[in-house]
Amino acid sequence: MKARWIGCLVVLSYVLGFAAVGFSANYKPEYKMSIVVGPTTSWGMGGAKFAELVKERTNGRINIKVYYSGQLYAGKQTNEFLLLKQGVADFALGSTINWSPAVRELNLFALPFFFNGSYKALDAVESGDVGKKIFKILDEKGVVAMGWGENGFREITNSKRSVKKPADLNGLKIRVVGSPIFIDIFKSLGANPISMNWGEALSAFQAGTVDGQENPVTGIIIPYKLWQVNKYCTFWNYVIDPLILAVSKETWNAFDAKNQAIIRKAALDAARWQKKSAREGLEGSSDSLNILKQNGMDVYVLTAEDVKAFKDKVKPVYDRWVPEIGADLVQAAEKAVQSAERKAPAKRLPKK
Ligand code: X2X
């Protein structure tokens, strides 16, 4: 009896051992994850968190290396989605702005003043039918989206003057991401938009070849210490920059169901953690406005009336981009925004 048991165990361990070897042989030694910014941002830390959770929960079987500051792409940051689609990057925590030239529906988040600076409205859109539809569109393009992170509402900085009304932007050279809707927005406001990668933008600010830029305060302006190059900051919450944690379909399909479940859960946990830290601020303080002031910045917060003047000016952007994004999708998002705002009036721009 005992001998039979031992025999069974020997056979079983042989089979399991063989299976394990066959199994592990399917893993790549390293999975690549693309991130456009550096490791000190909450965006970068979100990528590290995801890699860490996956490693821990698969006992080191799935090893994801995060490539920061756009190391995986030679060329434009707006090509990141293609990297993912082609499997050059296995994973990415990517900005909807960078992916929008490849997925036109993602321009929804760049419609100026659409979300009114309201996290509630944004969350309603992301977690509702519109968010699901967007994930489905990505899936059809060969990318499996797993969770929503966040870079943040984008504010504008420059080295020349305080921006309080559209005319203050006249002729200012503003660096923007190479995504066409941003060119349209800044042209409609009378500025001179210049598109370039984030990596190149930093040296352009130092050289003074551009006057300003727009990015989230906690997400980018503070970690990159932009007060060193731009004295003026205007809080206008004009667009939101959600991040999406996603995996190339090719990579995804090579994992078995058990690993897929682990990866999906890790993505949700990491994305939730990253979004929370982006909203709270990395210093453990939500008072990003004071951090800018303490570092010598002149900060102006638009009033509701100021916002109206900017909103009127960008009307042509809606005329051109709503059909491009899809009128139905924009309308569905509008409904979600309105209903979220009825339930909980938006926490507006911070007080001066
Ligand atoms: O390039 C930018 O401005 C950045 C870092 O915010 C994005 O990648 C969208």
In short:
This protein is α/β, with parallel strands linked by helices and 352 residues long.
Task: Give unreliable regions as ranges.
Answer: 8-24
Which class in CATH terms?
Alpha Beta
By DSSP (H or I, 4+ residues per run), the number of helices equals: 15
Structural class: alpha/beta
Order of helices and strands: HEHEHEHHHEEHEHEHEHHHEHHH
Biggest sheet, in brief? 9 strands, mixed
CATH topology annotation: D-Maltodextrin-Binding Protein, domain 2
Oligomer: single chain
Question: What's the number of domains?
Answer: 1
**Rg to the nearest angstrom?**
23 Å
Mass-distribution shape? globular
Mean pLDDT: 91
> What's the number of extended β-strand segments?
9
CATH architecture: 3-Layer(aba) Sandwich
% residues in beta strands: 15-25%
Distance between the termini: 82 Å
Q: What is the CATH superfamily?
A: Bacterial extracellular solute-binding protein, family 7
Helix content: 40-55%
Ions, cofactors and other ligands present here are: (2S)-2-hydroxy-2-methyl-3-oxobutanoic acid
Commentary on this structure:
It is a single chain. Strands 1, 2, 3, 4, 5, 6, 7, 8 and 9 form a nine-stranded mixed sheet that branches. Helix 7 links the parallel strand 5 and strand 6 (192-195). This protein is globular. It is 48% helix and 18% strand. It has one domain (28-343): 3-Layer(aba) Sandwich (D-Maltodextrin-Binding Protein, domain 2). It has 15 helices and nine strands. Helix 2 (42-57) packs antiparallel against helix 11 and helix 7 runs antiparallel to helix 14 (315-325). It is of the alpha/beta class and 352 residues long. The structure holds (2S)-2-hydroxy-2-methyl-3-oxobutanoic acid.
